[in-house]
Amino acid sequence: MVINTNMAAITAANNLNKSTSSLNESLAKLSSGSKIVNPSDDPAGLAESITLSAQIGQTSAANDNVSNAVSFLQTQDGYLQQVGSALDQMSTLAVEAQDVTKTNTERADYQAEFNTLAGYITDTGTKSFNGVSLFAGTTLAVTTDGEGDTFKMAGINLSASAYTTATAADISTTTGAASALTTVTAAITQLATDRATVGASEERLTYTGNELGVLQDNLTAANSKITDVDVAKESTSYAKYQILVQSGTSMLAQANQNSQYALKLLQ
What we know:
It contains 7 helices and 4 strands; from the N terminus they run αααββββαααα. Helices cover 73% and strands 4% of the residues. The protein folds into 2 domains: 43-227, CATH 1.20.1330.10; 230-267. A hairpin with a 2-residue loop joins β1 and β2 (132-133).
């Protein structure tokens, strides 16, 4: 039995330090909700988590881009539906103006309505979405993933000759009305093609958006497995370390009493 070196106390103190450190780490994980509080907790997992977090952010941004593009297309189609209604009425006016029982004065009234509808179509061609022209005919490249791949979204041009010829038509005479019907019919055919183009692009981007949503969920789940703490498991570890700290403290106090026993031998 020695006095200067109390190995029991030293051993107990070392074990107590380890238990206290583990307890603090467990407490930090539970309070933060993360398994990786410090890089040293899981260096490889941290590196993988950083990569996954970047991919999640990129995928989310791409999904936002796709959603905005779909909104752009839906706005386009909303306008085109109204343009279609205007063209339908213009074709009706062109047929009515060919009625030989009508006077030129009556045809002038039809012409006034025809011009109003034509003006509406022309004005629609100037509309924009968030500052981007809806009907300039420009092809737009939509980012479809976190790697920068794009989908070429075909542009729609309401200044195309099929539309401008129809809006410039004159139905003030029977001959002009017959010619106008031909041009308006051609514009309706062009509109059908344009709406089909918009619909195809919207369908394609909707599928892409759904795909990106699933990918984002899977990436998030993978990152969660690496970084998120299992509360049930960690709570069990926390309880264990609490017991170890309490017992270690008690044993250290007991070990420190050993030197007192040595002093009794000197009495």
